[in-house]
Amino acid sequence: MSNKEWPLWEVFIRAKQGLNHKHVGSLHAADVQMAIENARDVYTRRMEGVSIWVVESKNLHANEPSEQDELFDPANDKIYRHPTFYILPEELNHM
Amino acid sequence: MEINLEEAFQKRIDDEIKIEPRDWMPEKYRKTLLRQISQHAHSEIVGMLPEGNWITRAPNLRRKVALLAKVQDEAGHGLYLYSAAETLGMSRDEMLNELHIGKAKYSSIFNYPTLTWADMGAIGWLVDGAAIMNQVPLCRASYGPYARAMVRVCKEESFHQRQGYEIMLTLCQGTPEQKAMAQDALNRWWWPSMMMFGPNDDNSPNSAQSTKWKIKRFSNDELRQKFVDVSVPQAEILGITIPDPDLKWNEARGHFDFGVINWDEFNQVVAGNGPCNKQRLKARVDAWEKGAWVREAAVAYAEKREKRNLSKENTNAA
Predict the structure, then answer these.
(1) Domain residues for A82?
(2) What is the DSSP code (8-state) at residue B274?
(3) Do β-strands A21-28 and A8-14 pair in parallel, antiparallel, or remain unpaired?
């Protein structure tokens, strides 16, 4: 008997047209077709989606959480990227 | 170094910052969660069995589709939870193996038999009701994947309880025999449901740490009290009696007082000596073993298709 576990897939669902796909969880499936069908049964039993993406988990790459500070640090001191950095007269209203 | 990491970890928890899978966490936090989430997943899967018993014998099509959908939801809940547990570093097969060899537990409530159709009502009303009490605070658990899975579970659980209560209501408005059936189901499911909240607080050694880690937000006894307080008026609407002679309103406390739980029974069922422990576990092991050929065939088919696609690509390239 083969003891091979079905690969793990990450599931992304688009809730409705106009929205981006959002990660909802993972599941096991032998191949991509089964992954999509299982994702439909597990994650969209109540019409939660109009589109499904599945990505085999081993193909998903991420930054190291332990290096999070260094990675995001460069944005920290650039407050001039935000509109509130600029001081304008009040009578200007809504710019 | 280790101390600093642990302090920083606790600080994040105290600040209500969620912990995500690849973040550093104390080994005991990982183990506690892994045990709790996998047990929770097993409970959903084993929990399909007592109700599965009645799908083919549902009294009409409306009841049948509802029960079928509920049991399918439970499979889904098990899968959300297994998927959350896997992020802590244990494979799905390993978790299932621990269930099958009796190392991992599942909720004891599922070791009781479902003798009549009224049990479908009592389970939805009381067992799912108690589960909701337990699960709603878990939507805010400190571990992100668990909290997110619980949000999905809780959203779906409310239909389960309402369909159960509706079954009870219909029986209670029916013939005297039907009402007696509902009363009998309440008699059998009340105390096991009360036990679902676990041991009394002074007898629950791991609770303090789980509370500190914000896995647990309310104590077992607090949740149990809440369950009693909401169930009493629900039983009154049905016109049936909760089988507890000590149950009465306590004006001073603002809560219902209730009788002592039979912890010997609870411990016996946890230890494997409940009415259906062997039957439930056997059903899971059989499903796993008899399904082996399906899992293998699916892998073989996937491999064959991949090979075919590869050779097609090679031919096209040549």
Answers:
(1) 8-60+68-92
(2) S
(3) antiparallel
Total count of domains within chain A = 1
Our CA-based measurement puts residue B294 at a distance from the nearest CA of chain A, in whole angstroms, of 11
* pTM, 2 dp: 0.92
Look at residue A95 in the predicted model and tell me its pLDDT: 82
* Residue A14 backbone dihedrals phi, psi, to 5 degrees: -90, 115
Whether residue B93 and residue A1 make contact (CB cut-off 8 A), yes or no, is no
In a domain, A86, yes or no: yes
**CATH code of the domain containing A87:** 3.10.20.520
B17 and chain A: CB distance < 8 Å anywhere? Answer: no
Q: Determine the pLDDT at residue A1.
A: 42
A23 in any annotated domain: yes
A9 → chain B, closest CA residue: B83
- Contact list, A62 vs chain B (CB under 8 Å): 22
CB-based contacts of B245, cutoff 8 Å, min separation 6: B259
Question: CB–CB of B71/B248 below 8 Å?
Answer: no
In chain B, residues with a C-beta closer than 8 Å to the C-beta of A2 are: 296, 299
Distance (Å) from the alpha carbon of B254 to chain A's nearest alpha carbon: 39
Q: What is the ipTM of this complex?
A: 0.88
The more confident residue out of B113 and A94 is: B113
B22 inside 8 A of chain A by CB? yes
> Given phi > 0 = left and psi -120 to 50 = alpha, else beta, which region is A16?
beta
Per-residue pLDDT, averaged over A53-58, amounts to: 97
Structure tokens at A16: 């409705």
Minimum distance, in Å, between the CA of residue A78 and any CA atom of chain B: 24
Q: Which H or E run includes A25? A: strand A21-28
Chain B residues with beta carbon closer than 8 angstroms to that of A31: 298, 301-302, 305-306
Position A36 in a domain: yes
* Cβ contact B302–A30 (<8 Å): yes
A1 within some domain: no
For residue B93, the Cα-to-chain-centroid distance in whole angstroms is 19
